[in-house]
Design goal:
The protein contains 2 helices and 27 strands. The protein has a single domain, classed as Jelly Rolls. It binds fe (iii) ion.
Length: about 300
Amino acid sequence: MKSTENGKLEKTQSRSVKGIITSIATREGAGFAVRRPFPTQSLSLVDPFLLLDHMEPVTLAPGAAKGAPDHPHRGFETVTYMLEGHFVHRDSAGNSGTIGPGDVQWMTAGQGVVHSEMPDEELLENGGRLHGFQIWVNLPAKEKMIAPRYQDIPSSQIPIAESEDGKVWVKVIAGKSMGKEAVIDTKTPITFLHVKLEPGAKLEQAIPYQYNTFAYVVEGKGYFGKEQLPAETDQLVLFSHDGETVSFEAADKQSLSVLILGGMPLNEPVARYGPFVMNTQNEIVQALQDYQNGRMGAIH
Ligand code: FE
């Protein structure tokens, strides 16, 4: 930030780096391996983001693919972004669909759904490649009990921005980048970009000053923020609030694939228990009771 002559703060510069977090290896659902930069002991959330799971690129043997069988959610949104392989989704609201490479599913759990997220039959029977992400986005208190909503966006409908020299590629999942605007409707203001940079290429991305913002390195090595700090595969770079852009560049001899996530913080109390994220402990107890009493429905 710098002061102008009339004393106002001008927030146009590139944000500095607040911290770099290395993700931990853990298991989710029926036991599929994920890398998780948060929530962990050192970073519980990046308001409004509650969780980031990276299903690392793997080649699965026949019968080895695992998913997340029927389970509930209430009070937030789950966002799935696939890079390789196909997952089949079914839920208690009667929705079902398959998402494959480049597709995004943005599910607003709201008052509650029961859903399953499973590898498709092809992947289950014959094995194959799997790579993807799941992100949890919190809902504000006033929207935690809204009706569930389900946006299944095929890759072909998600805008791509590319630099003239072809060295910068941006998939605009939420928000805006390089003149392209996302088609997905989000309940809270969010930027979600998948950026690929050729070796040595750089991007300075505008992000509203108030947004909490991080970069997650999917693959490769790059230099981040005003200080140009190095980060590589599976590391999360958390930015400070001292500018209106985030800047990063790929290392000289390596390309860089990175997710950029920014969101307006809710600044509300967070009570979380497994698949339920509410504001108070009482609301968590209520969610458990509602689920146990079948009020979130079942998959038919
Ligand atoms: Fe789920």
